[in-house]
Amino acid sequence: MLKCLNDMETLICFKYNFKVTEDEKVSTVKELVSERLNIPPNQQRLLYKGKALADEHRLSDYSIGPEAKLNLVIRPAGERSAISEPTLANGTGVWQSIAVVLAKHFSPADAAKVQEQLIKDYERSIRQLSLDDIERMAIRILHPEVEGLDPSFMD
């Protein structure tokens, strides 16, 4: 079952049922949504319990069972689907800075492979953060004096 959310803070609450197995990939579910709702897969972001689902993973990877409810966030057309590049304090892009360092130590082909893997790992880590994780991180950053918070979620 899917609920649709619009990324612009307006909530459009429709329920749709899709018959899929737990072995289906998230990308397959997005294709089904695209066929039924005419929303391109690159504009879809599927969430389960506050966590974004990665296209290459299977529903079972997230312990999504038969009666699970997914949320669909619809990105505006033309919005980049990738997570934006982090920047350093001096305004330089992190990936650009990493590319410079890698170029000093590796051949161009090897540096490109290493950087590509770093970007994939970074994006996967960001996608795996739940809303609860982000809230705990924000509290920890904004209120460092609060005792008893487990900092391990930030690792």
TrEMBL record:
List GO terms (cellular component aspect).
cytosol
Transmembrane portions of the chain: none
Keyword Cytoplasm annotated: yes
Q: Which Pfam families match?
A: Tugs, ubiquitin
Query: Residue span of the signal peptide, if any?
Result: none
PANTHER family xref list: UBIQUITIN-LIKE PROTEIN 4A
Per its record, how is this protein called by name? Ubiquitin-like domain-containing protein
Q: From which source organism is this entry?
A: Coilia grayii (Gray's grenadier anchovy)
Top-level taxonomy: Eukaryota, Metazoa, Chordata, Craniata, Vertebrata
